[in-house]
Amino acid sequence: MWRCLRCGAGRLAGATVDYESGEYRTLVDGGDTIDAFRRLHDAEQAEKLRRLGTDRLRDAVCMDVGCGGGSFLDLVKGFARTTIGIEPTPSLRSALSAGGHLAFPYCAEVPREWSGRVDVAVAFSLVEHVPDPVGLLQDVHRLLAPEGRLLVSTPNRRDWLLELLPDDYARFFYRQVHRWYFDADSLRTLLGTAGFTDISVSHVHRFDVSNAVLWLRDKRPTGVGAMPCPPGADAMYRAMLEATGRADYMYGAARKA
Q: Closest Cα to residue 238, out of 216, 206, 202?
């Protein structure tokens, strides 16, 4: 693991990956079909919409970068005037087109007519995957309209379990498909370097107390709800980690000036 001394971002050394291959999607999602994507990700979309809010979506042009099968775009299509999905995997991109979304493999391949016209862009769990996250966000910046909004999300490299279990948890946390690792400061630096302003970062912890307890006991992930917890314990646990920046996940919001 390499670490930037200026901003603190981490980079995992390793072979490059082919983002258009079914093998890559299988590594990420366990399969490269639209059904596999929806089974894994449909349930996550309500929280993403809650984080973004709906106040800027009505009659807007909304773009999801790295959108997979388009579950988020399906959710907002009733609000937005136009929905654009950026997805390299051909099988998923075909499903986007079939769902009524404009679909392109990369931001650089979006026609010039859309430059400066996107009102809202999202990129969930994406910046950690790509070789050049600054270049990616600069492409998004080009497509956004003046005052256009961006919401990104990524795992937090200050996840408290990394300090608690530096060997066992690190083997789970650092993944072949994740090239970059950010904390709040390095995520702000990334967004600012790409040209964005009005930047804010918030933390969210997606797992409950039982997951942490069982990590300590079994040294492996168990998800949510694997064992009962005392009333209120889970809410207090998540709130503490989110308030101290030690939660497992982050959202970064920004604006194009």
A: 206
> Sheet of 2-3: strands edge to edge?
2-3, 10-11, 180-181
- Report the distance separating Cα 134 and Cα 157, nearest Å: 18
pLDDT tens-digit profile, the chain (257 residues): 888 888 889 998 875 677 777 777 777 877 889 999 999 999 999 999 999 999 999 999 999 999 999 999 999 999 999 999 999 999 999 999 999 999 999 999 999 999 999 999 999 999 999 999 999 999 999 999 999 999 999 999 999 999 999 999 999 999 888 999 999 999 999 999 999 999 999 999 999 999 999 999 999 999 899 999 888 999 999 999 999 999 999 999 999 98
Cross-strand bridge partners of residue 153: 124, 251
What pTM, to 2 d.p., does this model score? Answer: 0.94
Element (H, E) at 133: helix 133-143
Burial of 50 (0-12, 13-18, 19+ CB in 10 A): exposed
CA 231 to chain centroid, in Å, comes to 30
Phi and psi (nearest 5°) for 30?
Answer: 85, 5
